Every structure is written in C-alpha cells, then in structure tokens.
Amino acid sequence: MYKLHGFCQSGNSFKVAFALNAMKQPWEPVFVDYMHGATREASWRDKTNEMGEAPVLDVDGKLLTQSGAILTYLAKKHAMFAGRGDDEQYEVLRWLFFDNHKFTSYFATWRFMKAFAPEPPTAEITKFLKSRIDGNLAIVEKHLASTQYVVGDAPTIADISICAYLLFPKEEHGYDFGATHPNIAAWLDRVRAIDGYAHPYDTLPGERIPPKW
C-alpha cells in the first residue's frame, strides 16, 4: 500500500491523492504538520524530503517527491491517465511543466499569502502575483475553449495537476471561475465527475483553517 505524506491545505498533496483514488490504488495518509513547521525541521528533511516539501509518496520504502514527477510515475506504472500515444504523452508532460513552473507556482503562492500567511500580501505583491495568475488563467481558458480536457478528449494527469488549487474554496483565493472563466468552470465540473474525486478537505488529513485575509 502507498503511504502519502501530506496535509489538507496542500494542493500538491491533493494532486497525488486524487490520482491514487482515480487509479483505484489503496493508500494510507501520513499527516505532515506543515502549518506548525514540520517540514522545516532538520530531522524531517533528513528522513523524509531534503527539499522540505510535501507531498512525499512512500513506495515500499522508496520516497518519491515533487508532485509532477510522482504523477508521471503513477501514470506510467498503472497505465492510466498518461495520455494515448507519444504525441499525447508529450503534451501531458508539456502541460505538467507549465503547471509546475507557472500555473500552480503563482496561484498557490497567492492563495497561501491571502489565506494563511501571518500578514496580508502588500499591494505590490498582490499586483505582481495577480498579473501572472490572470495571464496563466487566460492561457488555460483559451485552450479549454476547443478541448474537453487539457490533453485530448479524456482526463490525464495534466488535468489532475492543473485543477488542484482551483478546487479549494473561492474565499481562499478570491476567484469565481463561473463568473470570470466559463471554460475553466465547465472543465472543473468534468474533473469533479472523474470517478475517485473528492474535495481536497475530504481527502487529506489536517484541520481546515479559515482564511485570514
């Protein structure tokens, strides 16, 4: 059985949990108390992940890190959600890199600062992050105007990766996709219909924290 180290506020942890559930793979959660500094402890980094990040997937004692790499590993191992043929698999990888480098990177940072940081983001930080988030959302919104899923006509790990942080409550990030990004909103409904989907806060351990700002 897989063991997934993560916590309920982590969209990156949710990506892996969602994939495991969609692939019908049994797994056991291992709570990471990120909000109280667990990943900053030297002992945790020495034993679990030198990068100081969740998720970590324990595969028979081998610890896998970085959500995009883990999703790729699982899709290949279980021959599910990987894309059909070389062209689609290349596209899946391309969108995973876009997500990790740009989409999740800015959106997750913004959500953390807005919902959980001890101080609210400054006007300069807000302007910087929102400009990049809005640009990335526009890319995905335009792309989804002509396709049911991020790659082709069936869900892949690209969908599972890109959707994760968008599925948290809008009061945590401030976006109402139904009002502003109809293609993304419709796609998120299709993602929620994937067998194995459950809300992030119903999927991973930890205590839900009300947004601060």
Which helices and strands occur, and which strands form pairs?
Elements: E1 2-6, H1 11-22, E2 27-31, H2 42-47, E3 56-59, E4 62-65, H3 67-78, H4 85-115, H5 123-143, H6 157-163, H7 170-173, H8 177-180, H9 182-192, H10 200-203
Parallel strand pairs: 1-2
Antiparallel strand pairs: 1-3, 3-4
Helix pairs in contact: 1-3, 1-6, 4-5, 4-6
Task: Assign the CATH architecture of the largest domain.
Answer: Up-down Bundle
User: Tally the helices: what do you get?
Assistant: 10
The share of residues in extended strands comes to 5-15%
Question: What is the count of distinct domains?
Answer: 2
Helix and strand string, N-terminal first? Answer: EHEHEEHHHHHHHH
Helix/strand structural class: alpha+beta
CATH class categorisation of the largest domain: Mainly Alpha
Structure in words:
With about 210 residues, this protein is an alpha+beta fold. It folds into 2 domains: about 1-80 and about 200-205, Glutaredoxin (3-Layer(aba) Sandwich), CATH 3.40.30.10; about 85-190, Glutathione S-transferase Yfyf (Class Pi), Chain A, domain 2. Helices cover about 55% and strands about 10% of the residues. The protein is built from 10 helices and 4 strands, in the order E-H-E-H-E-E-H-H-H-H-H-H-H-H. The protein has a 4-stranded mixed beta sheet, with helices on one face. Helix 1 packs parallel to helix 3 (about 65-80) and helix 4 (about 85-115) runs antiparallel to helix 5. About 35% of the residues are buried. The mean pLDDT is about 100.
